[in-house]
């Protein structure tokens, strides 16, 4: 669940190529641990799935989201079990003839109202969490997109593409590993995120 919560949305948002002005210089770009040798003016790519797995900001936000989701789901389950218990108790009393017809009708209507309120509560909470998830994905995608622009201001690639998921859902089916800037990009993203966290303390 952890990766699927955000990877799909962020990949969809960033599926389009990040195009930049081509620089005429041919000086080699800075290399990473993988020693990408893409030079200015190259068309390069990065693996969105790998970035999402290793991006500290994505993992931190997703951890907070999952904790909140678990708490809300636990409350939904608690209310559902209470409603079920009340319904069973009511049915048991009816079966034993412990309620008059008027009292049984009143309690039945009350149970129906409680069920409707429970369903509305569960739906409202699910909608709230879906909205929060979308906001979180937008935050992550925006942070990545902004960093890619900053990253390319230094490296001056002609085009930066993303690859994610299955072959048919990505603009990069195959590419020279030397044009893969994933490790460089991920290292820079995490360094920028750590710096931002320290500044916000």
What does this structure look like?
By secondary structure, the protein is mostly helical. The chain is 66% helix and 6% strand. It has 5 helices and 3 strands. It has helices at 2-13, 48-54, 56-95, 101-155, 182-199, and strands at residues 18-19, 43-47, 159-163. Strands 1-3-2 form a 3-stranded mixed β-sheet. Helix 1 crosses helix 4 (101-155). The protein starts with a helix and ends with a helix.
Q: What would the keywords be for this entry?
A:
single chain; 201 residues; mainly alpha; three-stranded mixed beta sheet; 5 helices; disordered N terminus
| Oligomeric organization of the protein chains | single chain
Radius of gyration: 26 Å
Name the poorly predicted regions: 1-33
Helix content: 55-70%
Q: Within the largest sheet, what's the order of strands?
A: 1-3-2
Which class do the helix and strand fractions yield? mainly alpha
What's the overall geometry? elongated
Work out the strand percent. Answer: 5-15%
* Beta strands, count: 3
Largest sheet: 3 strands, mixed
Question: Helical segment tally?
Answer: 5
Can you give the mean pLDDT? 82
Measured between the Cα atoms of the first and last residue, the distance is: 30 Å
Topology as a string of helices (H) and strands (E):
HEEHHHEH
């Amino acid at each position: 669940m952890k990766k699927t919560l955000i990877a799909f949305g962020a990949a969809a948002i960033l599926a389009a190529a990040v195009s930049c002005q081509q620089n005429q210089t041919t000086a080699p770009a800075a290399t990473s641990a993988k020693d990408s040798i893409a030079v200015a003016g190259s068309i390069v790519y990065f693996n969105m799935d790998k970035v999402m797995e290793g991006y500290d900001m994505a993992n931190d936000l997703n951890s907070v989201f999952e904790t909140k989701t678990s708490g809300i789901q636990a409350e939904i389950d608690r209310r559902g079990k209470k409603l079920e218990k009340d319904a069973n108790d009511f049915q048991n009393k009816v079966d034993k003839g412990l309620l008059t017809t008027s009292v049984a009708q009143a309690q039945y209507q009350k149970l129906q109202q409680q069920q409707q309120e429970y369903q509305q509560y569960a739906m409202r909470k699910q909608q709230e969490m879906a909205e929060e998830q979308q906001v979180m994905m937008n935050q992550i995608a925006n942070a990545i997109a902004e960093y890619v622009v900053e990253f390319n201001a230094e490296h001056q690639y002609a085009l930066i593409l993303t690859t994610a998921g299955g072959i048919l859902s990505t603009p990069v089916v195959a590419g020279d590993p030397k044009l893969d800037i994933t490790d460089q990009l991920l290292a820079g993203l995490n360094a920028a995120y750590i710096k931002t966290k320290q500044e916000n303390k």
